[in-house]
Amino acid sequence: MKDETYFTRPVHEWQRRYEALRASFVERLPAKVVAERFNYSPGYIHLLRHQFRNGKIDFSEPIQEGKVKRLKVTSEVRGKIKAWRRQRLSAGEITQLLSEDGIELSVRTIERVLAEEGFEKLPRRTRLRTGFTTRGTEVPERSESVTVKERDDGVFESDSAGIFLFAPFLAQLNIDGIVKSAGLPGSKMISAKSYLLSFLALKLLGTERFAHAGDHGFDQALGLFAGLNVLPKCTAMSTYSYQLDRVHISRLQKAFVKQVSKFGLYDGSIVNLDFHTMPHFGDESVLEKHRAGARNKRMKGALTLFAQDAATRLILYTDADIRRDESDDQVLQFLSFWKGIRRGVRPTLIFDSKFTSYGKLSELNEQGVKFITLRRRGKKLIESLDGMTPWKRLDIPHEKRKYRNPLVHEEMVQLRNYDGDVRQVVVRGNGHEKPAFIISNDIDMPVELLVGNYASRWRVENGIAEAVKFFHINSLSSPILIKIHFDVAMTMIADTLYFMLAKKLRGFEDSNAPKLYRHFIWGKGKVVVKDRKVIVTYPRRSHNPILRLVPWEKLPCEVPGLGNAELELRFR
After folding, report:
1. Domains of the chain by residue range
2. Is the pTM of this model over 0.85?
């Protein structure tokens, strides 16, 4: 039974404010006393008084605590809502139609009215059913292989017509032979080459993630590039990537690198090696935690290896899903791979201090392979600097280098688990708080070149950063899941194709992939298939004159996905 405590100790918030104002204006109590009685601050009591005096608080009909006052909808509006729902319109579409009639209701209010009237929710609809696809576009039920004869007399515009600029380079690399050498599987409807070109097309476009394959799902130009009517759906592409095991991907990588090596694109004398942790949120029992330098912490993910040609900055080897107990052996795994590509050539390998163990360095030395790396510096090693003499100043000939004259000290030292002596170069005054202890088994290399070569190792880190930002290798949480090893292998292929295109563009020979995409690849174009020939016309753009200067006639202008159909590129 309610008594006087209902008024002296109000439970509901609206009543508590009411009693506080009554005590202020009727009982004339000070703000501090009222605040202590009703558990408010004195400042809030002053605010309540101000709002009450200015008519900003209405106590005429307080609503029940815990419920929201619902907007009343007239029978006339209800009739309109029911009539539109019978036409299979969604709550959002009904809201827009009511707004055009001058009636402003929220989507939630529309949904409430429909529920009260006994209407069930509409099933989730695709972009095709909601009418968001291009008008007049014929969207097939499924993706399947097509020939240039079947697409004859086809005319269409595409937002991704720039993808055909890569077709001559794919034909030059003999993508058909690469797919056959790798032994990639296909299906009854889609060949292995079409699957590969579908993944590659999405990589080359620089779209944020494969999950946005829906943005290009109805693009006929991308389908034509891959030899299909349209690109496969997300589920089909994800399933295909997981059908490929390590043997398939290794053969694909080896066949591609061999073909690229025939054109002399790799220098191969110096190779930068580095690990990268690709964040992945999978089974706790399978995934390990690795160091993620970009996030400055250890996190669950897949440890991935990148090998980069130092001269051209091209990625020439990748590996993924490496376990911690396997990481030290990766330098020997790469060496075995590279010997199969360039027999008789022993590159100089450059990597950081945590890439492998001193025992593996000894094995490299026994095989006659030169290496440059850092020594793991501890407290005793730092303290030994005071007794090191003599020091000499270097002049590193690099225009953009900020610290061109560091101090160095050279000596021969012994390492644990390393057979023999190793050359050590201590570098001070290089812009870092602590000195660097560079170790190498190359005794004959000039110290200036030794320090400069190791300093250029940051290029592999820049290459990984570009792969993360432009080729989206870190975006693994998406509706379409791609096998990590296959993802990084496709990144290597896409990076090489951008490099080949850059070398043909006057003034853009050293440009990176994002810049090339922004100036040359991105944009609309018209595609015409006539007399079994694919004609791609690009509208007027500021960089078209540079594309006209490319000697396309010296390249095999073919579309590999369409059975090497003839390709003609026109620039207005």
Report:
1. 5-53, 75-116, 154-247+468-571, 273-463
2. no
